[in-house]
Design a protein that fits this description.
This protein has helices at 144-152, 171-182, 239-251, 266-281, 289-302, 348-363, 369-372, 438-453, 458-461, and strands at residues 9-12, 15-18, 21-23, 31-35, 45-51, 58-59, 64-69, 74-78, 83-88, 95-97, 101-107, 120-123, 132-135, 138-141, 256-264, 308-310, 317-319, 325-331, 334-336, 339-340, 377-380, 400-413, 419-432. α5 crosses α6 (348-363) and α5 packs across α8. The chain is built from 9 helices and 23 strands. The chain is 22% helix and 27% strand. Strands 15, 18, 19, 20, 21, 22 and 23 form a 7-stranded mixed sheet that branches. It has a 5-stranded antiparallel sheet with strand order 10-5-7-8-12, with no helix packed on it. It has a 4-stranded antiparallel sheet with strand order 4-11-9-6, with no helix packed on it. The protein is an alpha+beta fold. β13 and β14 (138-141) form a beta hairpin. It catalyses: N(6)-[(R)-dihydrolipoyl]-L-lysyl-[protein] + 2-methylpropanoyl-CoA = N(6)-[(R)-S(8)-2-methylpropanoyldihydrolipoyl]-L-lysyl-[protein] + CoA. Residues 31-106 form the Lipoyl-binding domain. Pfam families: 2-oxoacid_dh (PF00198), Biotin_lipoyl (PF00364), E3_binding (PF02817).
Length: 463
C-alpha cells in the first residue's frame, strides 16, 4: 500500500512546496516535426545519405542532424532547436520529399520555443554553410570542413578572426591565417598517406645471406573481388545518377560538332618538372590541368562565343563575363563537374590550389552547390583513366566541351626532320553547331594548342 504524505502543500512558479521543501515537476516541451524546406534549384526530393543522430539523442541549435544528397550536391541539415530526437522518419538511402518531416524533436519547455515550418539547410562545404562549435565558453561558427582544415594544421579556431556573416570562420580565413604564419597557402592534408617501410631488423651479414628483392615501401591497394549472385537486381535512380539522366537527355537535343587534334606537350612537361618542386614547397600539388585550364581561358578571351549560353528557344546568346571552367571528375558518387570560378583572374598556381581543394572534396563526397553550379566551359580529363580520343557530350546550358587524352611518349619529326621523343596528347572538342561553326572551334583549338606547345607565350597574355 502507498503511504500518504501529510503536511502542507502550496504551488509556486510551477513547483510544489511541501513542508517548505521544493518538489520540482518534471515537464517536457512540445514535440515539433522538423521539416525539409525548399533547397532551391527546383529540387523536390533528396536522398538521406547519413544520420548524425539517433532517437533519444540530445541536440542543440546548429548541431548536424543528417546529410542529404540532391541531384545537385550534398547538403548538411542542421538543427534549429534545442531538444531530444524522438523519431527519425527515413532510413539511410531513402528518398525524402521537400515539405515532409525529417525528425521529431521534443523541444525544451519555455515560451521561446516557436514552431518553425522550415529547416536550416546548408550546402556541404559552401562558404555560406554554418555550424557552431563550443570553444572555451563561447560559440565559434565554422563548418565541419573548416574545423577539419584547422585541426589538420594545428590551428585553434578561437585564434582566427572570422570574416563571414555573424563572425563565421570561412576557409579563406584559415588559409589567410596559415599564410601569415608560414608565408604560404596550405591546402587540406590528403586523407591517404603513404606508410613508411618498417624498420629493418638486425640480420646476419649480407655475405652470408642470399640477396632478396627489396620490399616495396608502399602497400598495394586491396582490390575487392566482385561477388556473383546469379540474380537480377533493380534499383531506383537517384541523386547524381538521376541528375545525369536529366542533363544528358537535354544534351541530346544539341547538334554536336566534333573536332580533334594532337598537342606536343614536350616543353610543358619540362616546365612543370621545374615548377613542381616549388609548388609542392607551398603545399600544392601541381598537375597539368591548371595549364590546360588557363590556356583555355586565354583562348576564350579571343573566342567569347565558346563561353556563352543559348536560351531554349535558340533566339538569344548570353556571353558570360566569367570563365567558370569545369573539370569532369569520376567519383564514387558518379560523374561530377565542379568548376573553378573566374579563371580569367587567376594564376596557374591559384588554379592549382582550387583544383586541390575540389579534388579533396570530391573524393569524400563533400562538393557543395557553389562548386557544382555556374559553369560556363568544361574540360574532361578522360586521359587520367586511359584512352586517347573521345566524343564528349556538352553540358547544357554550356555550348562547348573538351576531352583530354592520356599523354604518350611517341616518335615525331622535329624542324630538322630528325626523329625525336615527344610527349603527345590528343584532344577532342564538341561544340553546339547551332551557334558555333567548325572554323571557330578549329581556330580556338589551334590557339589553345599554341599556348601549351609554347607555354612561355602564356606569360605575354597573363593578366
Amino acid at each position: 500500500m502507498h503511504k500518504r504524505l501529510c503536511g502542507s502543500y502550496r504551488l509556486k512558479n510551477g513547483c510544489f512546496i511541501f513542508n517548505d521543501h521544493l518538489l520540482s515537476l518534471v515537464t517536457s516541451g512540445p514535440i515539433l516535426p522538423f521539416k525539409l524546406s525548399d533547397i532551391g534549384e527546383g529540387i523536390m526530393e533528396v536522398t538521406v545519405k547519413e544520420w548524425y543522430v539517433k532517437e533519444g539523442d540530445k541536440v542543440s541549435q546548429f548541431d548536424s542532424i543528417c546529410e542529404v544528397q540532391s541531384d545537385k550536391a550534398s547538403v548538411t541539415i542542421t538543427s534549429r532547436y534545442d531538444g531530444v530526437i524522438k523519431k527519425l522518419y527515413y532510413e539511410v538511402d531513402a528518398t525524402a520529399l521537400v515539405g515532409t518531416p525529417l525528425v521529431d524533436i521534443e523541444t525544451e519547455p519555455g515560451p521561446e520555443v516557436v514552431h518553425e515550418e522550415d529547416v536550416v539547410e546548408t550546402p556541404a562545404m559552401s562558404n555560406d554553410e554554418h555550424t557552431h562549435q563550443e570553444i572555451k565558453g563561447h560559440k565559434t561558427q565554422a563548418t565541419p570542413a573548416v574545423r577539419r582544415l584547422a585541426m589538420e594544421n594545428n590551428i585553434k579556431l578561437s585564434e582566427v578572426v572570422g570574416t563571414g556573416r555573424d563572425g563565421r570562420i570561412l576557409k579563406e580565413d584559415i588559409l589567410n591565417f596559415l599564410a601569415k604564419q608560414t608565408g604560404a597557402i596550405l591546402p587540406p592534408t590528403p586523407f591517404h598517406e603513404i606508410q613508411p617501410p618498417p624498420p629493418a631488423a638486425s640480420a646476419p651479414s649480407s655475405a652470408s645471406m642470399p640477396k632478396m628483392k627489396p620490399t616495396p615501401s608502399v602497400q598495394l591497394p586491396v582490390v575487392s573481388r566482385p561477388v556473383f549472385t546469379g540474380k537480377d537486381s533493380t534499383e531506383h535512380l537517384k541523386g547524381f545518377h538521376k541528375a545525369m539522366v536529366k542533363t544528358m537527355t537535354a544534351a541530346l537535343k544539341i547538334p554536336h560538332f566534333g573536332y580533334k587534334d594532337e598537342v606536343d606537350l614536350t616543353r610543358l612537361v619540362q616546365l612543370r618538372k621545374e615548377l613542381k618542386g616549388l609548388s609542392e614547397a607551398r603545399g600544392v600539388k601541381l598537375s597539368y590541368m591548371p595549364f590546360f585550364i588557363k590556356a583555355a581561358s586565354l583562348g576564350l578571351l579571343h573566342f567569347p562565343i565558346l563561353n556563352a549560353s543559348v536560351d531554349e528557344a535558340v533566339q538569344n546568346i548570353t556571353y558570360k563575363a566569367s570563365h567558370n571552367i569545369g573539370l569532369a571528375m569520376d567519383t564514387s558518387q558518379g560523374l561530377l563537374v565542379p568548376n573553378v570560378k573566374n579563371v580569367q583572374l587567376l594564376s596557374v598556381f591559384e588554379i592549382a590550389v582550387e583544383l586541390n581543394r575540389m579534388q579533396t572534396l570530391g573524393a569524400t563526397g563533400q562538393l557543395g552547390t557553389a562548386d557544382l553550379t555556374g559553369g560556363t566551359f568544361t574540360l574532361s580529363n578522360i586521359g587520367s583513366i586511359g584512352g586517347t580520343y573521345a566524343k564528349p557530350v556538352i553540358l547544357p546550358p554550356e555550348v562547348a566541351i573538351g576531352a583530354l587524352g592520356k599523354i604518350q611518349v611517341l616518335p615525331r619529326f622535329n624542324s630538322r626532320d630528325e626523329v625525336v621523343k615527344a610527349h603527345v596528347m590528343n584532344v577532342s572538342w564538341s561544340a553546339d553547331h547551332r551557334i558555333i561553326d567548325g572554323a571557330t572551334m578549329a581556330r580556338f583549338s589551334n590557339l589553345w594548342r599554341d599556348y601549351l606547345e609554347n607555354p612561355a607565350s602564356m606569360v605575354l597574355d597573363l593578366k
